[in-house]
Specification:
about 250 residues, alpha/beta, eight-stranded parallel barrel, 12 helices, about 40% helix, globular, binds 2-phosphoglycolic acid
């Protein structure tokens, strides 16, 4: 089965409004890839600006976070219906930085995921082990636990999820998982999806690699059978680097 290939740029808490505008303009003008979907995931202040620039182009919009409730007295929070109203297509959930710095646990992440899916926004659900987990050979069981709440979703809902495997030791460190390590974990993830949701669903889910993915390693990573693209942090802040990663699929 043909799976969707995706290159998503997670800008994290970076870029002024002007810088975000310039970067978006460069990306939408230079993106001609028919081989993968390009998603920009800026902070909230950029979302409408990026949406306006990207309107009419194939680049899609993603959010970095969302509240799980529909609306109400939650000062400082952003609801999924607000995101929907400005054309957000994807929502990031479970990034290791949210798990670590904002104490988001698997129960809350499931609620956030359900909130996105209920409004027709696809969730990019992140998982990934710490360096110590890998050293102790616990990396597969960490991923098992991080994904376990998702098995409660219906098959129909599960099909609206993209998984991002981001080993924490590779995020922002310049150390990338080898292509073999990435393929091994992606195949494992696809295997547990198969066990829980069946072959058809498992074969249709895009699994992205994230963690110091850059123009020099993207092609080799994306050539792996179960690696369907990348979630890019640092290298998504520079149009040349980001577009070069997108072009790895050409
Ligand atoms: P990085 O970040 O590419 O800077 O390692 C990836 C991510 O956290 O999504």
């Amino acid at each position: 089965m043909e799976r969707k290939r995706i290159v998503a740029g997670n800008w994290k808490m970076n870029l002024s409004f002007e810088e975000g505008k310039n970067l978006t303009e460069e990306i939408v003008e230079r993106n001609s890839s028919e081989n993968c979907e390009v998603i920009l995931i800026p902070s909230f202040i950029h979302l409408t600006g990026v949406q306006r620039i990207a309107d009419g182009y194939s680049v899609k919009l993603g959010s970095q976070n969302n509240h799980h409730k529909e609306s109400g007295a939650y000062t400082g929070e952003v609801s999924v219906s607000m995101l929907k109203s400005i054309g957000v297509h994807y929502g990031l959930v479970g990034h290791s930085e949210r798990r670590k710095y904002f104490q988001e646990d698997d129960d809350l992440l499931l609620k956030k995921t359900k909130a996105l899916l209920s409004q027709g926004i696809k969730a990019i659900y992140c998982c990934g082990e710490q360096a110590a987990d890998r050293k102790e050979e616990n990396h597969f069981s960490v991923i098992d636990k991080q994904l376990s709440k998702l098995w409660t979703l219906s098959e129909e809902d599960f099909q609206k999820i993209v998984i991002a495997y981001e080993p924490v030791w590779a995020i922002g460190t310049g150390v990338t998982a080898t292509a073999d390590q990435a393929q091994e974990m992606h195949a494992y993830i696809r295997g547990i999806i198969r066990e829980n949701k069946g072959t058809e669903v498992a074969d249709s889910i895009s699994i992205l690699y994230g963690g110091s993915c850059n123009p020099s390693n993207a092609k080799e990573l994306f050539l792996q059978e179960d690696v369907d693209g990348g979630l890019i942090g640092g290298a998504s802040l520079n149009a040349d680097d980001f577009m070069s990663i997108v072009k790895s699929f050409d």
